[in-house]
């Protein structure tokens, strides 16, 4: 901390006054009575301490010295030399805070009220112990002489007793509720802070990690009642009230440190805060502070040493803040942290006015422009972090003049050019991170010539830019002793760097794609690594039978040419050996590698069955055995692998069904079983897998229907691949409820029915998903890198690093009928739509042009009719199109993207289409169409005549005959009518024939 000297001075003076005052007072009294003779332990107080000890749990025997008559000699107990009274009990735990769970020496149990017999106690420290959520004892408020009380980080719980307000002599109070060992510590809380008014002598107050949400409206008034307060620490207190106008701290005339970090104020910076002229350290990081800050008066902050406003949302006004501070604080400010805001623009020249600045953090903003020259004037600078901005250009050579620099971080910018050799002049440099820029040129020994204190060096670059090379002699002996080194995507050497052998303290080694083509040297296996990353080289040879590193170690040797059998004994936590040439079976005793949390041996030549002993790996979270030659069935005894969240067994020769134990893995996020010979109905075993992100059952022999509950129970699903099976039934509409789904592959099944209109509700296909800027950063793929094989542009392709931004719907090769729903056109970011080889009818939706993200569209082998919608030509991203084997008609569009589709096969077997690239001329087709229309009209009239004849006869026949058959009276009347009609016709015919004969005879006579 930049202000540590000032803070230390204040605390020293304060503690001296704390101890000397009572000691001098008591010494004066005793000297006048018995001439200053030393006294031993008071028996009442000794018994009180023993009773207190009996109530404690002491797992490591820290209180083993608490024996004998003189309690003043016990560890953690101090007495007044003159009176023998116990004045100090200091039992804080001094455990190792660097690793979680390491609190073996922490005291616990109950706190006995026998301590009340320590009438002269003025100092009590029980911090960093573990009292497992018991309340802070109320009787602690009865120590009238107590000046120092520290119960921080000791896992107390419940309500802070207001009785503590009786400690009127208290100078130092630390009740910080956080726990260094366990982040789920019981929460200490307060409903109001009125009791603080009784602590009239208080100079130091820390209530960090105490829930003050119930006291958020009056916390400032309560604090204002502490006129002698020097330091106020209220971080992580769930505060939300921050008055903007009147100063609630008018009585705090001496306050020098205010820490209100990690709260939820959600407001702008109040102006009164910057009028506290005594302020030296101000911490408002991660307090949801927002802009604007244009009207804040900074002229009073002439004593400011530390200002931390990181992790807020102040906005573009950050430059004005820097300019304002430079006008008043250039003689005092030592630490300035404005990281993780939304600052923009170029870095101001006023940065150079902070002459005493030691630490400057402007990371994770939107600063642009070249490296600011004003920084060269900050000759006291020790820490500079400009990472995650858009700073461009080279590192200036004057960087070598900042001789006090200890930490230089320039990662994730747009910087380029050569790395200056002057960096080698930074003799105090400890950390150097230059990741993810576009460096070029050569790194030589001169760059490291004087970096004797360097412990961490990282130069991870993008695979798109590999213009940087190392040139280090094989016999070079570096001046430093590194603890971590990371180099990625730039050439280091053909042989394994021998100079690494000199780095005895090295526990993190990353050499990714650095051109090494060599066997791994034997000495490397003797290093005590926590991280060993040598992927994407040309390493060859075999691994030792035993692979053993530090507890929790991660080893990644993937994408090399390593071969032979897998190691028999593994003492690592995360092991990545994928994409090598390892062969033979997976060791049967792999279950003895009890520390394994992730195992990736994908894409090798492994055979045999999956060992049942894997069930012993109780901490296993990720297992990837994909793309090998494994056979047999999925083991049935993985019930106890409760931490398992990723299973990838795809691209093997596994058979049988999905075992029932999968139903108990509710935390499973990735289940990848595609491309095997699995069979049966899979879904009953998956019903409880409600957290799945990716489900791949493709290219197996699964059957049954896709259940409706997938859309109800798997709401987190992003990728669903069921292609190449024997699923039947309709596509359930409940799939539309999967708002995160961006890959839906149901191709090559026996699905029927229509396409659900609600597919337009797949909102993940309507918004742009941004790929992380560092998606190729190896450090973010230490869990599991999702990959999936999909058919895109007519070819089967495996997607891995960019899978999160692949948007696809493939329903091809099914028995789906009906029209293409117009609602599907709202999926504006859908990249691939394949509906080919179905029985779709109707027209292509007119608004298909709204699908501006389409790159691949395949509607071939259906029964679609009508014209190609003109709006389709506006899809400028479209580069693969197939409309063949339909009944489309009209001219093919020629504008925009359609001018690039010159392959006539994508339109073939559509007799009504015309124009380039087809040979059919649209004008000829129109004349022929007119002629065909006239012939069609004649044929149509004749058709109607014959249709009428064909339909009229049976209809008339059955209308008459049917009624005669069904009704007897009608039948009798009908036949009577027929008889009478016949007789009449006979008489009429006979009469007329006789009449005709007479006329003919008469004509013959007179002729």
UniProtKB/TrEMBL annotation:
<keyword id="KW-0812">Transmembrane</keyword>
<feature type="domain" description="Disease resistance R13L4/SHOC-2-like LRR">
    <location>
        <begin position="345"/>
        <end position="516"/>
    </location>
</feature>
<dbReference type="Pfam" id="PF13516">
    <property type="entry name" value="LRR_6"/>
</dbReference>
<keyword id="KW-1003">Cell membrane</keyword>
<dbReference type="InterPro" id="IPR003591">
    <property type="entry name" value="Leu-rich_rpt_typical-subtyp"/>
</dbReference>
<dbReference type="Pfam" id="PF23598">
    <property type="entry name" value="LRR_14"/>
</dbReference>
<comment type="similarity">
    <text>Belongs to the RLP family.</text>
</comment>
<dbReference type="InterPro" id="IPR032675">
    <property type="entry name" value="LRR_dom_sf"/>
</dbReference>
<keyword id="KW-0472">Membrane</keyword>
<feature type="signal peptide">
    <location>
        <begin position="1"/>
        <end position="25"/>
    </location>
</feature>
<dbReference type="Pfam" id="PF08263">
    <property type="entry name" value="LRRNT_2"/>
</dbReference>
<dbReference type="InterPro" id="IPR013210">
    <property type="entry name" value="LRR_N_plant-typ"/>
</dbReference>
<dbReference type="GO" id="GO:0016301">
    <property type="term" value="F:kinase activity"/>
</dbReference>
<dbReference type="InterPro" id="IPR001611">
    <property type="entry name" value="Leu-rich_rpt"/>
</dbReference>
<keyword id="KW-0418">Kinase</keyword>
<protein>
    <submittedName>
        <fullName>Leucine-rich repeat receptor protein kinase EMS1</fullName>
    </submittedName>
</protein>
<keyword id="KW-0433">Leucine-rich repeat</keyword>
<dbReference type="Pfam" id="PF13855">
    <property type="entry name" value="LRR_8"/>
</dbReference>
<keyword id="KW-0732">Signal</keyword>
<keyword id="KW-0325">Glycoprotein</keyword>
<keyword id="KW-0677">Repeat</keyword>
<keyword id="KW-0808">Transferase</keyword>
<dbReference type="InterPro" id="IPR046956">
    <property type="entry name" value="RLP23-like"/>
</dbReference>
<dbReference type="InterPro" id="IPR055414">
    <property type="entry name" value="LRR_R13L4/SHOC2-like"/>
</dbReference>
<keyword id="KW-1133">Transmembrane helix</keyword>
<feature type="transmembrane region" description="Helical">
    <location>
        <begin position="944"/>
        <end position="966"/>
    </location>
</feature>
<feature type="domain" description="Leucine-rich repeat-containing N-terminal plant-type">
    <location>
        <begin position="45"/>
        <end position="80"/>
    </location>
</feature>
<keyword id="KW-0675">Receptor</keyword>
<dbReference type="Pfam" id="PF00560">
    <property type="entry name" value="LRR_1"/>
</dbReference>
<dbReference type="GO" id="GO:0005886">
    <property type="term" value="C:plasma membrane"/>
</dbReference>
């Amino acid at each position: 901390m930049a202000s540590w000297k000032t803070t230390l001075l204040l605390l020293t003076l304060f503690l001296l006054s704390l101890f000397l005052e009572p000691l001098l007072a008591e010494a004066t009294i005793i000297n006048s009575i018995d001439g200053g003779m030393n006294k031993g332990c008071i028996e009442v107080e000794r018994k009180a301490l023993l009773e207190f000890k009996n109530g404690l749990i002491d797992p490591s025997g820290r209180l083993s010295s608490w024996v004998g008559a003189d309690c003043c000699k016990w560890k953690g107990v101090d007495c007044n030399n003159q009176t023998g009274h116990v004045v100090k009990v200091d039992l804080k735990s001094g455990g190792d805070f660097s690793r979680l769970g390491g609190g073996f020496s922490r005291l616990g149990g109950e706190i006995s009220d026998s301590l009340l017999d320590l009438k002269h106690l003025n100092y009590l420290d029980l911090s960093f112990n573990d009292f497992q959520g018991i309340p802070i004892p109320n009787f602690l408020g009865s120590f009238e002489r107590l000046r120092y009380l520290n119960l921080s980080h000791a896992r107390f719980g419940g309500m802070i007793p207001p009785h503590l307000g009786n400690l009127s002599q208290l100078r130092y109070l630390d009740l910080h509720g956080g726990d260094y060992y366990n982040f789920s510590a019981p929460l200490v809380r307060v409903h109001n802070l009125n009791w603080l008014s009784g602590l009239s002598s208080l100079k130091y107050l820390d209530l960090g990690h105490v829930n003050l949400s119930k006291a958020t409206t009056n916390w400032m008034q309560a604090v204002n009642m502490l006129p002698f307060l020097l330091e106020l620490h209220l971080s992580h207190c769930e505060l939300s009230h921050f008055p903007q106008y009147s100063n609630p701290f008018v009585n705090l005339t001496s306050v020098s440190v205010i820490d209100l970090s990690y709260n939820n104020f959600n407001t702008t910076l109040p102006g009164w805060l910057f009028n506290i002229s005594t302020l030296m350290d101000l911490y408002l990081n991660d307090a949801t502070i927002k802009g604007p800050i244009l009207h804040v008066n900074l002229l009073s902050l002439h004593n400011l040493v530390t200002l931390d406003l990181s992790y807020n949302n102040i906005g573009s006004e950050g430059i004005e803040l820097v300019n304002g501070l430079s006008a008043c604080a250039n003689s005092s400010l030592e630490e300035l942290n404005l990281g993780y805001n939304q600052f923009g623009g170029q870095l101001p020249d006023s940065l150079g006015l902070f002459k005493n600045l030691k630490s400057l953090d402007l990371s994770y903003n939107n600063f642009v422009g070249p490296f600011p020259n004003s920084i060269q004037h900050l000759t006291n600078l020790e820490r500079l972090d400009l990472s995650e901005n858009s700073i461009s250009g080279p590192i200036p050579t004057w960087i070598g003049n900042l001789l006090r620099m200890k930490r230089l971080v320039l990662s994730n910018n747009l910087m380029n050019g050569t790395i200056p050799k002057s960096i080698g002049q930074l003799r105090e440099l400890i950390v150097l991170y230059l990741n993810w820029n576009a460096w070029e040129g050569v790194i030589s020994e001169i760059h490291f010539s004087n970096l004797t204190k360097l412990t961490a060096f990282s130069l991870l670059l993008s695979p798109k830019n590999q213009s940087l090379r190392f040139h280090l002699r094989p016999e070079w002996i570096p001046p430093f002793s590194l603890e971590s080194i990371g180099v990625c995507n730039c050439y280091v050497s053909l042989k394994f760097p021998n100079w690494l052998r000199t780095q005895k303290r090295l526990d993190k080694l990353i050499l990714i794609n650095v051109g090494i083509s060599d066997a791994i040297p034997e000495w490397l296996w003797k290093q005590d690594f926590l991280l060993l990353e040598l992927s994407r080289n040309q390493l060859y040879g075999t691994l030792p039978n035993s692979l053993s590193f530090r507890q929790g170690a991660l080893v990644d040797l993937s994408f090399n040419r390593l071969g032979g059998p897998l190691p028999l004994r593994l003492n690592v936590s995360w092991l990545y050996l994928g994409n090598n040439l390892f062969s033979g079976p997976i060791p049967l005793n792999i279950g003895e590698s009890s520390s394994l949390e992730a195992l990736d041996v994908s894409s090798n030549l492994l055979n045999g069955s999956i060992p049942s002993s894997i069930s012993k790996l109780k901490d296993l979270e990720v297992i990837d055995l994909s793309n090998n030659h494994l056979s047999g069935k999925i083991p049935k005894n993985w019930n106890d692998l409760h931490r398992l969240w990723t299973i990838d067994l795809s691209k093997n020769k596994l058979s049988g069904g999905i075992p029932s134990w999968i139903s108990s893995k509710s935390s499973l996020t990735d289940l990848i079983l595609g491309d095997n010979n699995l069979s049966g109905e899979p879904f009953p075993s998956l019903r409880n897998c409600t957290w799945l992100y990716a489900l791949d059952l493709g290219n197996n022999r699964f059957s049954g229907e896709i259940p409706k509950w997938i859309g109800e129970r798997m709401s987190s699903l992003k990728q669903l691949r069921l292609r190449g099976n024997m699923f039947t039934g309709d596509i359930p509409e409940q799939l539309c409820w999967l708002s995160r789904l961006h890959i839906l592959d149901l191709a090559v099944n026996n699905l029927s029915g229509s396409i659900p209109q609600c597919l337009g509700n797949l909102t993940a296909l309507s918004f742009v998903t941004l790929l992380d800027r560092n998606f190729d950063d190896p450090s973010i793929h230490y869990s599991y890198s999702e990959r999936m094989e999909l058919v895109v542009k007519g070819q089967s392709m495996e997607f891995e690093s960019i899978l999160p931004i692949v948007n696809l719907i493939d329903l091809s090769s099914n028995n789906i009928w009906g029209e293409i729903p117009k609602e599907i056109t709202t999926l504006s970011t859908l990249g691939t739509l394949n509906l080919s080889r179905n029985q779709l009818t109707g027209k292509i939706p007119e608004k298909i042009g709204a699908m501006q993200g389409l790159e691949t569209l395949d509607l071939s082998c259906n029964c679609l009719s009508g014209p190609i919608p003109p709006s389709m030509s506006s899809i400028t991203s479209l580069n693969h199109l197939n409309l063949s084997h339909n009944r489309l008609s009209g001219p093919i569009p020629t504008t925009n993207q359609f001018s690039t589709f010159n392959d006539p096969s994508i339109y073939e077997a559509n007799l009504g289409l015309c124009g380039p690239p087809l040979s059919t001329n649209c004008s000829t087709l129109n004349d022929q169409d007119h002629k065909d229309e006239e012939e069609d009209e004649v044929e149509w009239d004749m058709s109607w005549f014959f249709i009428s004849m064909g339909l009229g006869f049976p209809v008339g026949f059955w209308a008459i005959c049917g009624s005669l058959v069904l009704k007897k009276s009608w039948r009798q009347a009908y036949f009577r009518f027929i008889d009478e009609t016949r007789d009449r016709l006979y008489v009429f015919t006979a009469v007329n024939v006789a009449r005709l004969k007479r006329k003919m005879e008469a004509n013959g006579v007179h002729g």
